[in-house]
Specification:
Helices cover 73% and strands 0% of the residues. The protein has 135 residues and is an all-alpha fold. The chain has one domain.
Length: 135
């Protein structure tokens, strides 16, 4: 069964912290645990900041200020947003999953388990080489 993805308008609502209908529950889990989950968190942060950036640049243009100053302000805001969004990404995603009925810290557990499964051969080689106790 394929995961049902929301249309653009509900996705924007979801990006601003809204709750999607339960039929998108599997997609929310995928969104929080897929390989690109951190990039998705960053894109949601960009979507949240984009209207303020557009308004700021427009106001600078309307009032006759220099556009480099407006661009600098927007870039500074984006850097601050990037730091905030990435600093709290794990908590944000786990909280989002909790609102959809998943247990606390479920996203982290799923990502950790998937990582262990994908890197099991590397871990075994490490244990065989360094934890054999024959040195």
């Amino acid at each position: 069964m394929a995961v049902r993805r929301p249309n653009p308008l509900p996705w924007v609502y979801y990006s601003y912290g809204g709750r999607l209908p339960d039929r998108y529950r599997d997609w929310v889990l995928h969104d929080a645990t897929c390989r690109t989950w951190l990039l998705r968190v960053f894109v949601r942060g960009l979507v949240q900041v984009l209207p303020a950036a557009v308004i700021l640049v427009t106001l600078f243009e309307v009032f006759g200020h220099s556009w480099p100053l407006a661009v600098g302000a927007v870039v500074l805001g984006l850097v601050g947003m990037l730091r905030y969004v990435l600093s709290y990404s794990v908590e944000s995603v786990n909280g989002r999953l909790t609102r959809y009925g998943f247990p606390p810290r479920y996203g982290t557990a799923v990502r950790r388990q998937r990582y262990r499964e994908q890197h099991a051969d590397e871990a075994e080689r490490y244990r065989a080489r360094w934890r054999s106790g024959t040195d």
